[in-house]
Amino acid sequence: MGHLITVATCSLNQWALDFEGNLERILESIRIAKQKGAKLRVGPELEITGYGCHDHFLEGDTYLHSWEVLASILQSEEAKDMILDIGMPVMHKTVKYNCRVIISDGRIVLIRPKMFLANDGNYRELRLFTPWMPKKVEEYYLPRMIQKITNQTTVPFGDAVISTLDTCIGCETCEELFTPDSPHINMGLDGVEIFTNSSGSHHELRKLHTRVELMKAATQKVGGVYLYANQQGCDGDRLYYDGCAMILVNGKIVAQGTQFSLNDVEVVTATIDLEDVRSYRSRMTSRGMQASRSEAYRREQVKISLSHPDMDSDIHLRPSRQREPFYHTPEEEIALGPACWLWDYLRRSKTAGYFLPLSGGIDSCATATIVASMCRLVVAASQAGNKQVLEDARRMAGECESYVPSDPREFANRIFYTCYMGTEHSSKETRQRAKDLASVIGSYHTDLDMDSVVVSIHSLFSFVTGKTPRYRVHGGTPAENLALQNIQARLRMLLAYLFAQMMPWVRSKQGALLVLGSANVDESLRGYLTKYDCSSADVNPIGAISKTDLTSFIGYARDAFDMPILGSFLDATPTAELEPITENYTQSDEVDMGMTYKELSQYGRLRKVEQCGPFSMFYKLVHEWGEKMRPTEVAAKVKRFFFYYSINRHKMTTLTPSYHAEAYSPDDNRFDLRPFLYNASWKWQFGKIDRAAAALESGSSHTKELVDINSQVD
């Protein structure tokens, strides 16, 4: 007869330093796990505090309040007759650690500190915590408030495992799954059958499969049960933690949660036969040989069983079936991830809605469509009876408890405001597209001409200086032309914040609006935006999404959301409409930039992901583009990119906080740490590129410049 157990993991929408709310969500997840028959519940990384506390982890208060929350959990009915894997920061011997606290039936069994810390990209854990040594265990003196509850003075602190009456459990924390020598390997060789992984892993386009494949490989190699928990939602900054709690057995998925959701608590359970793990391992002869030589972990004993006495005798109970992993397409990810992030940001900021300058171009169209997607999600969750969503929606709409959003357009009209800010340079086509899109989405739309404001600024400058600047098409210099464009762009930001503050008042509503930005990642990388124009806003849902992906998303949304108007945006040429339109000239973004959006995406990935400087980028592209252009043409393109990137890098210091979705985001705040004052001539680097390009064109392929790059790894 087998040994059937039910285990639970979860995704929680925790919020940094929201100790009261975080506690309630933790307790709710335990209640649900219990109701589903689970005896083991695993939660996300640092779930008591929220993962995104950043430098608040350096404050003593954060640790004090964490213990206070844990005290509440220990005393709760929910903690009884359960094994709980809880995430919180712990200070041991005045050193701060990112820990898992393992509780069994209201007592602390083990505090397990994280051994391998995430310290790349958006993560700075080494700034906040210290890594622990593998297989080292010490005694930890509990705070007096905990001693009074558990009647324990000390508990084990370190890299140990938990032995129950029927199995053995070991912990991993987030980054430890991604390391070459992951803890689950040695734990599995030492007989651990259940691995828990508590994560604070954020969404990035096309990233989920990496996580899933690592989890599959973990238990496919050593056998066992893998429980993955993750945070889900926006907990206070640019990241959206994308949930997808998961349970795997012997390399196969048996349960998978949602990646994007408005639910604050989602619990995923599975029923598993432990004999499946044991028989799987017994077939692996080489594993047995390695296991017999492995160094043993210290085991902490708990007198509790994960199986119920009546589970094996219930003929109607069977192990959860294997299933294939579910992945959203990139277009669906864009429709769902930023929409959920916007909803969290809106409800937690306690504001009345969003305001968007709607230009009639594809970028602001994409932002508006994401808000429309958010409204669709709110309506779906409301209709499904989500109490938290209903409470937040009623507050924003200013309605009583009987109000239940049933139509995305109706709800959008209450919380989403758009405005077309035209000038004499704006076309009828963009104005009409903006109006039609607003009508389809349901936003409260206004349409204005701001020429009188622009002219007043022109007149003031001419009055003060005695000079009248002209556009390029009228014979003006590049400096005049750029200044006149920037006046319009910056006035739009001023008007956006004015309207965001006053439009609820115009409609006799309370509160103010958050201004949405709509600059994409490629334009930010190139610096093709005006500092303090409409790219300056409160938040930007598309700021780390490429133009190519946004275009694909609009094509998807046209059909999925039944919005045919989006087709007209796909057919339009991207243009800022800041210069006069003549018979011979219409402003085009790609012409202005001197490079295509597709090229910008390649430059961005090479610069950030592949860590290429100017010469390395040239070397890679000269081979990739060699069939269609000469080496000197490739050299000119690479030099043009780095020149404009470097002279505009200062703009990233004021970049609007954007939803992180792309690995080559130029966000200066935490993700892409580089100077913002460059020597834009790049004389040494560009000189090397020019010599190499000339040598390639002349047929001398064995020059010093080309040989050097192949020896850099020596």
> How many DSSP H or I helices?
25
Spans where pLDDT lies below 50 across 5 or more residues: 710-714
User: What coarse outline follows from CA principal-axis ratios?
Assistant: globular
Distance between the termini: 59 Å
Instruction: Bin the strand percentage.
Output: 15-25%
Number of strands: 20
Radius of gyration: 29 Å
User: For the residues shown, what is the average pLDDT?
Assistant: 93
Structural class: alpha/beta
Notes on the protein architecture:
The structure is a single chain. By secondary structure, the protein is α/β, with parallel strands linked by helices. It contains 25 helices and 20 strands. The strands form 3 sheets. Strands 1, 2, 3, 4, 5, 8, 9, 10, 11, 12, 13, 14, 15 and 16 form a 14-stranded mixed sheet that branches. The C terminus is likely disordered. Helix 10 crosses helix 18 and helix 23 packs antiparallel against helix 24. The chain is globular. The protein starts with a strand and ends with a helix. It comes from Phycomyces blakesleeanus. It catalyses: deamido-NAD(+) + L-glutamine + ATP + H2O = L-glutamate + AMP + diphosphate + NAD(+) + H(+). In the C-terminal section; belongs to the NAD synthetase family. InterPro entries: C-N_Hydrolase, C-N_Hydrolase_sf, Gln-dep_NAD_synthase, NAD/GMP_synthase, NAD_synthase, Rossmann-like_a/b/a_fold. Pathway: Cofactor biosynthesis; NAD(+) biosynthesis; NAD(+) from deamido-NAD(+) (L-Gln route): step 1/1.
Could you give a short description of this structure?
This protein has 714 residues and is α/β, with parallel strands linked by helices.
